[in-house]
Design goal:
Number of helices: 11
CATH superfamily: Aldolase class I
Structural class: alpha/beta
Strand order of the largest sheet: 7-6-5-4-3-2-1-8
CATH topology: TIM Barrel
Distance between the termini: 14 Å
Helix content: 40-55%
CATH class: Alpha Beta
Shape: globular
Strand content: 5-15%
CATH architecture: Alpha-Beta Barrel
Length: 252
């Protein structure tokens, strides 16, 4: 049985004070709640220490939004997986569409970042997804499976279930548009089928696949009822505790 996994990606929002306040609100709201859903947050680098400290021993997981491919070196402005691990981070986003589009993270770079996570003892949340033009051209499956092959192709079978996959149709991120539950399920089933074809059966059965793309309280329950959707990577709705909690309620 795959546990639902909901992660809030705070992107470039919430400095240390605001991040601490939001983390505290989540801590208070989730205390004593049914723990059948795994919950995580991904603050910006500068806010990680405050959030890690605030959420210690709560069961709420902390993720970073990115990491460098190398462990150390002359890479001004970058942060390594080893630094993140020492800061108390458990997970790290890799290949988010904004990293791919705005910062030039190619499939080859994403692969290196997946391996950098494993070297550092971090668990990757690997984002894959197509642009609107690619979907309109009927290329969405080709794009997503290409991204999967590039990022996971050199992993051992027993490593793959440690990777949380996040399908994010790029046309539905920050636009207010959402893939219908059936559209999302169709791609999630494609991803799981791809895993079944390339790895032993346990990999597809146990690997979690999140949906990311304008998830909110009003659509979370319907999305989470789909058989291959195992949670959500949440953007804007994770910046407000009440909105984020409404999504969690949709998973129950």
């Amino acid at each position: 049985m795959r546990r639902k996994f909901i992660v809030g990606n705070w992107k470039m929002h919430k400095g240390p004070a605001d991040a601490d306040a939001l983390a505290d609100a989540l801590k208070r709201a989730l205390a004593g709640r049914d723990a059948s859903v795994d919950v995580g947050v991904a603050p910006p680098y500068i806010s990680l220490p405050a959030v890690v400290s605030r959420l210690k021993h709560t069961g709420i997981l902390v993720a970073a939004q990115n990491l460098h491919t190398e462990q150390q070196g002359a890479f001004t402005g970058e942060v390594s997986g080893e630094m993140l691990r020492q800061a108390g981070v458990a997970y790290c986003l890799v290949g988010h569409s904004e990293r791919r589009q705005l910062f030039g993270d190619t499939d080859a770079i994403v692969e290196k970042k997946v391996h950098a996570c494993f070297r550092s003892g971090l668990l990757p949340i690997l984002c894959v997804g197509e642009l609107l033009a690619e979907r309109e051209a009927g290329q969405e499956r080709e794009v997503v499976t290409r991204q999967l092959a590039a990022a996971l192709g050199k992993l051992q079978a027993d490593q793959v279930p440690s990777v949380t996959l996040a399908y994010e149709p790029v046309w539905a991120i920050g636009t207010g548009k959402t893939a219908s539950p059936l559209q999302a399920q169709e791609m999630h089933a494609t991803i799981r089928g791809w895993l079944e074809e390339r790895f032993p059966a346990f990999v597809a059965r146990t690997t979690r696949i999140q949906y990311g793309g304008s998830v909110k309280g009003s659509n979370a329950a319907e999305l989470m009822r789909m058989p291959d959707i195992d949670g959500a990577l949440v953007g804007g709705a994770s910046l407000n505790a009440e909105d984020f909690l409404a999504i969690l309620d949709g998973c129950r």
